[in-house]
Amino acid sequence: MEWLAALAFPAIDPVAVAIGPFAIRWYALAYIAGLVLGWTYVKRLARRGVSSLDEATIDDLLVWVALGVILGGRLGYVLFYWPGYYLPNPHEILMVWRGGMAFHGGLLGVAVVTVWFARRRALSPLVVADTVVAAIPIGLFFGRIANFINGELWGRTSNVPWAIHFPGAGLFPRHPSQLYEAALEGLVLFVLLTWLVYCRGALAKPGMLTGAFLAGYSLARGFVEFFRQPDEHIGFLLGPVTMGQLLCLPMLIVGVWLILRTRRA
Fold first, then answer.
1. In the chain, what are the domain boundaries?
2. Which of 211, 156, 146 is nearest to 179 (CA)?
3. What are phi and psi of 15, to 5 degrees?
């Protein structure tokens, strides 16, 4: 392979603000931005009468979704990606400042709190889930941008003109797969879900938006995994399949089932 001149990785400090020993990282700000903007968006859906949930309910839901994202994301990372390390060292599981969150774990955490919240309020879990997933691509977009700023989760080696030399990623340039994910899982998926909400009345068909999100995310993530470097300690599974693609498979199945279910209703 003939290697072309690659782009230099932008020198962005992962720490956004530092006051003495106290530091705020871009990754933390990405989580905050995703939650706050997502909360603002679904409240707007409620004010416009698009969502059947009222604003007070959405305010209460935000707290539980945040807990689901953080706890589920951390436990998912521990169980899906590093069980051999964390299970013998359980005291390090809570050390989230060292990094390590998994989207699929965060999704499971949000699913659990969504079902619990809905049943506690005598609401349909699918109605609540549809409102939540409408905003998830916002958080995914900021999260992937933060991955890029941190210079982590880079892509496979490549000679495309936009390949980047990531610090600590070896001699050869790589796909900026974090930006691919920000575009597909964030922007494209958000546009798709918004179109379904406003042009197809998806929130009036419980389960449709959740199904579209699950299927859309799994297809987007599964595609980008062909450009993303697998975790070194895991590598490929079942031939060329990665852990990310394997975890997306049940999401795709459930998503397609929900879409077909709403079409038959």
1. 14-264
2. 146
3. -90, 115
